[in-house]
Amino acid sequence: MSTLRKEISNGSFCGGIDVDSPLRHFSGATRTTNTNGFAHDLLEISMGPHHPSTHGVFRMDVIVDGEEIVQLKPVFGYLHRNHEKLAEKNSYLGIIPYTDRLDYICSMTNNWAYVLAVEKLSGFQATERAEYIRVIVSELTRLFNHACLVGFLLQDMGALGTPLMYAFREREKILDLFESLTGSRMMCNYMRFGGVRCDLPEGWLDEAKKVVSDYPGFIDQFEALITGNEILLARSQGVGVLSRELAISAGVTGPMLRASGVNYDIRKTDKYGIYSRFNFRVPLGDHGDVFDRYMIRVLEMRESLKILEQALNQIPAGPIIDPKAKNRGLRPKAGEVYSRIESPKGELGFHIISDGSASPYRLHIRPPSLINLTILEDMCLGQTIADAVIILGSVDIVLGEVDR
Amino acid sequence: MKFNFQGAGIVRGFVETARNFLGSYYDPERLTTVEYPERKLALPENVRTVPFLVYDHDMSGLRCTACKICEQECPAACIKIIKDTVKKSDYLGKSQFQPQVFDIDIAVCMSCGICAEVCPFDSIKMDQVYELATQDRFAPLILHKEQLGKSNAYFHAIHPTDAVETDSLRDEAKRKAETKAAADAAAKAAAAVKPKPEISTTANSQSVGTSATANVEKAVAT
Amino acid sequence: MHTLEEIKNLVEQNVPGAVVQIVPNANPALAGSLLLDSKSATDVAEYLRDVAELKFDLCSNVTGIDWPSKEVKTKIKKLVDGVEKEVEEITKTPAFLEVVYHLYSTVLVHGPLALRMRTIDRAENNRVPSLTLVWRSCELQEREVYDLFGVVFEGHPDLRRLLMWDEFKHHPMRKDYVPPVDEGDAVEVSA
Ligand code: SF4
Ligand code: SF4
User: Fold this and answer.
1) Are A231 and A257 members of one domain?
2) What is the mean pLDDT of residues C157-182?
3) C130 in contact with A, Cβ within 8 Å
4) Which of B9, B111, B114 comes nearest A228 by C-beta?
5) Would you say residue A361 has pLDDT above 70?
6) Does residue A275 sit in the same domain as residue A256?
7) How far does chain A reach from its first CA to its final CA, in angstroms?
8) pLDDT in tens, C65-121
């Protein structure tokens, strides 16, 4: 991309530093280094777009003074497919498989966010059994998303392979469940307006119960492997601190927000689906640093397990889809809706405007991954390059969703 | 295990890794990968990769009626259908269109399964082949009718539940159609004998049997 | 949570010079939104963020919408040559770009409140005030709306394209955007 070439072309880098940007007043972050008079020592580094630590095709334009970051500009768009434009040409049903490909790790929650918005728009209600199935598959998604995130984070810290492979081993078990349920491991395309596409195959619930009952053992093992690890503590505590106020102002959501101590979980506040029926707590952090973000994920996995246990035991028999809900050739009444869910990465919202025709007039996806990156620079200022890598890792981004 | 010294966390981690590594020699459960391609895992019934077309008996029994619903609904727009001018009769004996061209560009297909979901004629179903790599990324990835057509027996082999259900529905429809056809034929025959059918309707229908009464009346009326 | 009416009254009483209009949702079962005017928008936004009854501290979502001019046919009664006749009249709807903000409160746990702002037209007068300095979360989202729709946010500290590359000319989410024919290297379509 030509921006890359232009920005790296030689010239005076320090002229480009935007110390007085009004954006910095949000965090009060200023340059702490003694660069005055040593401006020629600044170095501009382009991290990415092809770099294992950027979790996809994402680039950070970093200016460092020695090891210390004095400016960091994220550069997006390398994976931009414009799903929103594609949606304007597709039927409401045909958009569902496209939502799988936003955050391609968590297709189930993406499906849910989208069908929930359309259900609100057209006044459908999912059946009781379908609501339970939705909760079960979404919480399973949260389990493996968090496990993988922790694995990736440790990979970024230099724990090459082992924790990530342990996380993948567990993820594999859940993906097997998804495969036997929906026919695909990652691109599930499972939810439909008014319910879900197909019923649980025979024996699926027992298998799911087995996975869920084995999972705490895995978390314990995982924690024994890393939580007390001195290198992890040294690398993550006090690194990338995000204050409560800045987190809210910057629209940070999900585990990132809760790690900064804000009690805001959409499953609790909006009570979408049937989440009000389940007993679970919302873990909160104190410091808002990388370690808290790591710990929040571990604790959230344990809470998800609680929800799963309840849901798997309570799931009723019955139809999986409301026969009155139209899927093929749906034309919702004209109107506008914004609907959101707590996806594993944060608030995933769909803003849909219908003009009464067979495809949406406008469909906007509120991507938690992108908006959580708003304050990437604020968290990284004054830290080292190696810290920037783990700070980015702790945000939990998937580029399919960042760029859409 | 409890260690309390600087670096204890690291030691604990190594113990965990060692347990997993050594454990894999004793417990086959701990081996999580298989040696592909020598060994392949059995696929669950629901697995879907790319679509295929079901035929009964042979290629001439292709179930597709070229109604183009799948072409319309495919979100990736990778299906291309051209109707044949010649019609053929389907399993119910009805005259139906058939596709002259039925192409699916599997390079574009995203394996969503929506085509299989919307097809009203149980014709397009999802396949389970997954070794689809080719050396050229254009022509070989466009599958034509001949490559797409697969037998109902194959459908039974990969999706037994769905196939059995589909077959029973189709048998049901066929039985109904046959009864109706028989009744129609009988009614026609009766109509040919008696030049004034509207008067003799009731008498005739009784001879066919009560279950087909309604059909006969309709047939005679038209 | 207050109703739209109540919020509108609160704003009009407390923010000097505020002009707020309620835009109903086309579907009456769903919530409407508040239309702000460009002059007072930042003041209103700050008020909504800070006032104790509302505390909309989380601006969650920013959407751009393109409304090109549409021809609407309406039947009206008219005197033609002394006789009253029904005549079809074609009127053009105004063309503009719209930005919608969805606000929530993490303190009082309510929302969403939708705010809208409209540009005067889709060509030169495509400006609305930026709310980035009120809610930091608008920073990247407003850049995205600028990039994809061509709405210029006045007062945005760092208004650059977000997803498309800098040399790209058009705004791809506009309804009249024609994608390049060549599927390889993107051919730029002039605005
Ligand atoms: S495959 Fe099915 S939906 Fe597609 S054209 Fe043939 S009959 Fe119609
Ligand atoms: S599986 Fe989906 S993308 Fe592929 S042909 Fe069918 S509808 Fe189209």
Assistant:
1) yes
2) 83
3) no
4) B9
5) yes
6) yes
7) 18
8) 988 888 887 777 777 777 777 777 788 888 888 899 999 988 888 878 888 888 888
The SS3 call for residue A235 is: helix
Q: A319 and A189: one domain? A: yes
| B192 Cβ contact list (under 8 Å, min separation 6) | none
- Report chain B residues whose CB lies below 8 A from the CB of A179: 44, 46-47
Is the pLDDT at C190 greater than 80? The verdict is no
- For residues A190 and A286, membership in a common domain is answered with yes
Is the Cβ pair A230, B6 closer than 8 Å? yes
Looking up tokens 């059909």, which residue turns up?
B215
Residues A391 and A312 in one domain: yes
Instruction: Give domain status of residue A1, yes or no.
Output: no
Ligand 1 within 6 A of B201 CB?
no
The residue to mutate among B78, B117, B128, having the most atoms of ligand 2 within 8 angstroms of its beta carbon, is B78
What is the separation of C-alpha C142 from the centre of its chain, rounded to a whole number of angstroms?
11
The reply to whether C178 touches chain A by the CB within 8 Å rule is no
Q: Which residues contact B219 (CB under 8 A, 6 or more apart)?
A: B183, B184, B187, B188
Beta-bridge partners for B89: B95
Q: Domain range for residue A21? A: 16-75
Whether A22 is covered by a domain: the verdict is: yes
Contacts of B110 in chain A (CB under 8 A): 97, 101, 187
Amino acid at B37: P
CATH number at residue A186: 1.10.645.10
- Regarding the beta carbon of B106 and ligand 2, being less than 6 Å apart is answered no
Q: Are residues A201 and A346 in the same domain?
A: yes
Residue A11 maps to a domain:
no
ipTM > 0.90, yes or no:
no
Identity of the residue numbered A126: A
What domain count does chain A have?
Answer: 2
Which top CATH class is B51-170? alpha beta
Q: Which of A182, A212, A48, A9 is nearest to B117 (CA)?
A: A182
* Ligand 2 centroid to residue A30 C-alpha, Å: 53
pLDDT band at residue A109 using 50, 70 and 90 as cut-offs: very high
C152 at the A interface (CB within 8 A)?
A: no
- State the pairing for strand pair B142-143/B99-105: antiparallel
Among A404, A401, A388, A384, residue whose Cα is nearest residue A48: A388
Cis status, amide bond into A360, omega within 30 of 0: no
Is A2 a domain residue? no
Would you state the structure tokens that stand for residue B41, as one six-digit string? 């895992």
Q: CB A17: neighbour CB atoms within 10 A?
A: 17
Is B161 in a helix, a strand, or coil? helix
Domain layout of chain B by residue ranges = 1-32, 51-170
